[in-house]
Structures are given as C-alpha cells and as structure tokens.
Amino acid sequence: MVEHAAISPARVWSMRAVYVLISLGILLLELLPLQTQPRAFAGPDMILLLTFVFALRRPEYVPPAVVAVAMVLADLLLQRPPGLMAGLTVVVSEMLRGRSEGLRTLPFTVEWLTAALGIVAVMIGYRVVLALFVIPQAPLLLALSQLLATALAYPLMVLGGVALFGVRRVAPGEVDTLGHRI
After folding, report:
1. Which domain holds residue 46?
2. 42 — phi, psi (to 5°)?
C-alpha cells in the first residue's frame, strides 16, 4: 500500500485563495471592453469551468460558501439575475463533489462527460428559470455555442489547473492532516 502525504490546512486555504483570485481575474478580463462589435458565438464560462475542475478533482478546495460568493459576485458584475447562476452552480458543484470519489479511478473521459453533464444542467436550468419568469435571454444559438465551448474547454482547464497549480485528482488512500481519508 502506498502512503500518501497529508494535505496541510495551509495548502487547502491557499488553494481556496487561488480559486477566488483566479475567479476575480476571469471577471476582470470579462469586464474589459476588448471588442466593440457583438460576436456571433459565445466563449466558455470560465468561472463555471474552474469551479467544476476544482469540485471534481479537489473538492476540499471549493466549499459551497466560497463557490457561492464567487458566483454571486460574477452574477452582479456580469448583470445576470443575482443568485440564479450562483445557486445552480452551487447545487451542481455539490453533486459533482459527491461523485468525485467514484471518478478517481475512472478514465479522464468519464470525468469530462460528468463535467459536461453538469454544465448542461446549469445552462438548461438557467434558461428554464429565465423563461419561467419571462426574463429576456440571449438567443438560443448563442447559448448553445457557450454550452458547447464550455464543455469542450474542460480538458484545457484541467491541463492548466494541473500544470499551474497542481490541482490533480485525489489519489486513492490519500489522507488529510487529521488522518481521515479524503
């Protein structure tokens, strides 16, 4: 049996700070007026991707309160209905957190499919709630392009997370500082 090093509380808190700082950086880039003409397609929702990568690979780094704060801030700054995307993201990220243990030994494609299903759930839920309350929405083609771009960008976000910050999957048998299995 391979003995794994324990994860220190300092590492957990520093990675939570990294998550928040990356989210703030993404928001800053999304708010910059880099293009004056409307685009025919939407890019990926990078904060949603970041949240799902952390939730599936290292769930202890993204507690629900941290995800909620980051997403509510994104809702407010991006002029979305406050709390709607945040609530959907928290619910789906908690569902992914629950599945993360079962995905540890499965191939990456299963993780990617699980994340893609979570992305679909958030995007469809968002559009359904907006439709129920008769709130104006982006055209369907634009929303579909964002959904597709977000799902396809998941492997790139995983690669970046692993290469830059060491956000890898939890190894079977890994323990926290108190000796509890993660």
Report:
1. 9-30+38-165
2. -110, 145
